Amino acid sequence: MLRLLPILLFFVSTAFAQTFTSTIRGSVRDSDTGLPLMGATVSISPTQAGAITDAQGTFRFGNLNVGRYQLTVSYLGYTTVLISELLLESGKENVQQIRLLPSGKQLNEATVTATRPVSVNSIQEITIEQTFRYAATYMDPARVATSFPGVAAANDQANGLVIRGNSPNSMQWRLEGVEIVNPNHLSNAGTFSDRPTSTGGGVNILSTQLLGTSQFLSGAFPAQYGNVNGGILDMHLRNGNDEQTEFTAQASLLGLDFAAEGPFSKKSKASYLVNYRYSFTALLGAMGASFGGEDMRFQDLSFNLNFPNAKGGRFTVFGTGGISSNTFEPDKDTAAWEYEKDGQNILYKNRMFASGVTFEQPLANKLSVRAALVGSALATSRVAYAVNSQSFGRDELLGDQKLINGKISLNTTFTYRYNPRSRFQWGLFVTLNKYETDVWSVNTNLNSLAVQPFVKWSFQVTPGISGEVGLHAMLSKVERTEKLSALPEPRAAVKWQLSETDQLSASYGLHSQMQTAGLYATHIYDTDYYNNRNLSPTRSQQIVLGYQKTFPKNSSLKIEAYWQHLFDVPVGQGMRDNYSVVNLIEEIPYEFLKNNGKARNYGVEASFQKLLTSDYYMLVSGSLYDATYVDLFGQRHKARFNGRHTFSFTGGKEFRSGNESLWGVNAKVLWLGGFRDKPIDVEYSKALKTTLYEARSHYSVKMKDYFRPDLRIYWKKSKAKFNRTLAIDLQNVSGTKNEAYRYFDKRKDDVVTQYQLGLIPVLSYRWEF
After folding, report:
1. pTM here?
2. Average pLDDT over every residue of 584-603
3. Closest CA to 738 of 716, 767, 711, 709
4. Top-level CATH class of 22-116?
5. Is the predicted pLDDT of residue 612 greater than 50, yes or no?
6. CA 435: distance to chain centroid?
7. For the chain, give me the number of helices (H) and strands (E)?
8. Which of the residues 85, 165, 480, 491 has the least number of beta carbons within 10 Å of its own beta carbon?
9. In the chain, where are the structural domains located?
10. Where does the UniProt annotation place the signal sequence (predicted)?
11. Which of 142-151, 199-208, 436-445, 632-641 has the lowest mean pLDDT?
């Protein structure tokens, strides 16, 4: 009888097993005009189902069992599109917005993307599904990018990125294709001076619940991109479900998320998507919990409203905003004060918002227009006091700094497709920048204007050779200066499809980027005469050569070699500190700067990627590179972010238990060459009780290599009307002590090494219905 028990349990469990289903649907449109494509063929695997799009370009697969799927979309005269890694879960529809690219080619080339590729080389798409699946991303697309070749995180506590040896300050954030200010909470997180950065922070203010597919570009940018030298993260918002109301609730050690989406009415396709998030640490802090004296809090609200029209266009209204703070209180037990910071009271506040509208409209069968207007602003303040060890009251004011950075950006782009082999794009970007700083009650207000027209022609020479040429112009002026920078920037790229599986490519671009707000607003010697308002943008020439080979089962190999020559780099004119802007992050050098420096970055990158098929995926990438700069004295040195190499492994495996449960085990391993630091003048620092570097020093001190393994385990459970996900992320599961920076500590009276974060566990629970 006991021998029959396992067999009996199997039949009983099978008899009571439930099959949960949901829907995959979407629309297929022309990538240039946005017009619906009627009669496109959509097939879905591993099933044998197929569908033909209707007059509105829509398709639907209903009553599908939950699980992983792949869509194949084809249409006569257009490039076939493969969309992999689709996860269908119960209680939530999977809605795809697919754009097909006209093709005059005879080759059956397939792309793995739902949108038009915006660059020939050095581009990666970041999907919402990847941010939920990759280990220790904390649902932040910038942290997903650390899996890509040539990309390194500046520090564990923030999402600022070192791209091909460039400073994180050379990275540009975009929202819906328009440049915005730093969109992060706690933009001082992990920095050496505890002051805000221009491009990074602890938590992305824009919740992942609203994000669609983002583009990450790392060099030789096409003509439609400007005011950038290092890299671009262009985040795009997804539309809310236009047929049914859906909700998402998530709780984790990062925060509590609540999202709602759905149609405004059953009679229209207009939809809304809104999300509110409140930090979990703020809840614990309100209940009296302490995190080593740190009280970190943030909250944000984001929304996206989509209004399509009957002529194939759409109008959207979107916005995001958040506030955050980081307050450090000394321990009541003064005997526990070990470092200089232990005896300080620091109050840091951060506010950011971005809001705008977009308008897309086909004007004819071959012509379309897209316009976006976005306003964004970032306000930070930091006040630090020395605390009296006897009365425990505030003594000396150690620092008082405020910074406001605002942008109003307008982008208008026209696209005209002459025929399937020839396409023209032209447009205009206008950005008004506002800087306001207040350091020790010295106030500076500056405005600047950047006007960037561009034109681009994409063409096909033969069935296997295509290219594009373009011209971008950067016209910029800083208030209260007579200097107008007018910089023409030619761009070109070519792609040669050797066979259905092999491709060669090459790109060239001349680029420029305005300086950060802190540099323009700097006063030297507390006078207005010595200032840096006359600084020109930093410029760079970039060349990228690429080879790509595709393999069966959704895998590919990509190799790229790049060369970047930076010139007109601001360098300090002082004889001691030897500043070059390519080495700065959050520091404001109170020194007179001139555009007479140079820098050079070159290297080779390789990545092998297998998308999630057959229940596993992997992305193995690495690079060898060199980053140097030329100082005021004409001498070339290793740059601060010259780690020499990057390596990352990202992969995972899924296990299905019946039709209800899906388990996933995901790992990421980062091995990066250590960044560099200046040698500290110990005796001089002891005399003045602050960190001072050796005179005319450069970045000759190399920190140890960085090594960090991460792990993510999730369990997805399906029910008839909802699904649940329980996950745990373990950042730095080995507890490796990676070096961050070195400084002179007044309390220790010696040089101290600050280390990166150790093991950070983050538990999360997600409920979609």
Report:
1. 0.91
2. 90
3. 709
4. mainly beta
5. yes
6. 23
7. 6, 46
8. 480
9. 22-116, 129-768
10. 1-17
11. 436-445
